[in-house]
Amino acid sequence: MYKLDIPLDKKEAEAIKRRQKNEDDRKERIFNARTRIIGVDRAALECQVTERNNAEAVDAARDSAYSRDMIRNDKLGVLLQERQDKDARNLHKKLNEFRSQYQTPDSRREWDLNNPEFLKIQKPTRESDCDKNLGISSAQVFEGEDLSGKERLTAQQNQRSEWAQAQKEERNRAEQQLRYSDYLYEMKQNQLDQKAMELQASEQAARRAVEEATKDFNLRQANEREQREKEEKEAELQDNLCEMKNNVFGDLLTENPDVARSAFGSHRVITDRWKGMNEGQINDIRKIQAEQVDLNSKMRAEEKRINDLWDKNRIEMAKKGTLLERAEKRERRDIQKRLVEENKRMAKEQASRLNHLDQEVYQNRPSEDYFAQFNTTSR
Description:
With 379 residues, this protein is mainly alpha-helical. It is 76% helix and 2% strand. It has a two-stranded antiparallel sheet with strand order 1-2.
């Protein structure tokens, strides 16, 4: 006995499994009716792939160009934004420098009221009457006293007058600036109006020049056309006169027989110049016609004789054909009868042979298992 339970080698088992998988894939490809019958147009698919790749390349190039434009625009926007920020920083810096230099707190009008060092720098009220050794905190001013009231009132009046004068000057400067701006605006408007009038005048002058040139050109064209028509009429009149002279004194009306002779032979004439035949030519034609009549009579007699012979032969051939056709029909009937008898004999033989095959030969008919063994492998 053979040992059938011996385990297979691992590599051999994997090779068998791989071959089985390849065989299953091949069967799936081969037994797929749609793939096997219709097939795939590889050239068309490659053409479509090429067209799609080209379209994708064009789209990619366009997108790349748009991306580069966007990047460039973004960079320009960033540069402009940085420039604006830088300008704003410079402006704020200069503004702060200006304020720190020219708008210090001590230059304000109310600095004496808001100065934090006011008490430190204040001098004694009665410095002339007090001892030099008295400090700032010594009792010098008492309640109810107003030693500097007059000076303060005078200073306040002077300050109010200065403020009023400054406001007046500022208002005057604003009014002068406004008048100057109005004057500049009026001058600019006058200048623009003057320029517009000059442009309108130049445009009208150019339009008049164009109209004059067009008018002159049209006049010249009209004169040239009139002169040309006059010359054409004169030329046409001369041509008509010349044609009338040629027709009157030409060979057509003078009926010159020589003009009807053709260059292709003496027997040929030019039909549009021919004026008819002479008496000799007419007699020759009549003589030729008489000869042709005699010849036609002889030809008709000969033709009649030949036709009679052909009719006689045709009648004889028709009789022979009728006899042959009758003999052929009789032979065809005999052949048909023999063929029917032979067919009956062969039908009996075929029936007996089929009966023999069905009753004796084909006893083991194939079952469904027999047909199921086909198309199980791709080889």
